[in-house]
Amino acid sequence: MADILKDFKSPEISSILTKEFSKYQDRTFKIMELCGTHTMSIFKSGVRDLLPKNVKLISGPGCPVCVTPNYYMDNAVKLSMMKDVIVTTFGDLMRVPGDGKSLLEAKTEGADARVVYSPIDSLKIATENPDKKVVFLSVGFETTTPVVALAVKKAKEQGINNFYILAGNKTMPAAVEALSMDKEITIDGFLYPGHVSSVAGTEYARVNSKKYGIPGVIAGFEPVDLLYAILELVKLIVEGKGEVKNLYKRVVREEGNPAAFSTMLEVFEPCDTVWRGLGNIPMSGLELRKPYEAYDAWKVFNLEQNIDEKITGCICGDILKGIKEPPDCPLFAKKCTPNRPVGACMVSSEGTCAAHYKYGRYKINV
Description:
By secondary structure, the chain is α/β, with parallel strands linked by helices. It has 16 helices and eleven strands.
């Protein structure tokens, strides 16, 4: 079977695109990618090394684990330590520190925290453990939230009454607008997330670009995808066009995925929520609607959402805004490493600090 992505990985095409940047050397371009997978792909494929020095790539808050606040993880640990509770989660969250210990550390002390590959797996654990309360840590953007919504619907349909979710889901549109309004951030253009856009569609990006005059491109994840998207974005910036181009049409439709989006909004409704490093962003989160509140761990367990986070020396917030880079942090590659992370940006496989640590050319002090 032929590799349908062969051209998107072509060194020859990448070389041609790279040479095109020589036409745009009279100014600096600051471009923020809004997807953690973009960040990792850019580093892993060497795209950063191919770009001229005047094209600056900034890794924004595109990793859901990285923008999960401390209080969420503290509550997750609190739940896991309860004798009648099983906490289920995707793997990255196991090592995210809150103000206290991580789930992985709690597990060594007897907590019941288990890694699953889908929220649907948690339903099975709930049916196999009727004497336990199973709480799934629901963290993610529009890409994964519809599956969580489906799990909640299934729990209700099947009468599974010992399954809950700790909702920490976030949506991209309000966050993009917050970044566009932030006077600390000077961004010339956005590289919009292909995964989120495949569900949410392209309208949110077009509305934001029109309102704030910041152009954007929706991009795929292969080297040619990325180079072509960045080149087209540079052209839009030079031309002063506050437009959005969809260059990932093989996956992203203008309307997104209406079925998935509809399922998400059937179960969840927008709410204010805290993003690590960015603070409270109105209507950028999702909480369970009233018909499904019996599955809401926040309410069932009477958990507090304390937005006053302690400062640990980690500059995750400034990194997520693109104000600083990971090597600027005094903890980076010293006290904070993938094996012993201090901040969430070092934990996730899509985190900015983790990407810099793994692929960046820095002197590592272990």
